[in-house]
Amino acid sequence: MNEEDLAALHDAVKGLNAENELLRKQLADATSNTVTQVVVEKERHILAAPILITFPIDKWTVSNQARVNLGYFAEVIKQGDPEVVYRITG
Prior knowledge:
mainly alpha
């Protein structure tokens, strides 16, 4: 090996030693710091679109399709946030 290559290798080893020392310090700082607890809250959003149920004039029967829609909407209300207000009009 010539002196130039040897010097380049020596400089590379020096640089790696410096980087290694920096990483040791970062690790020591990280382990000596107080652990902070992070709380992640998951929000749950249920989409409830407005629905319209129509009745024939002078009748009060509900179609099967309307029953399915009402059943879905009732589940959304039951499982939803108790602070959410729904308005049902007729």
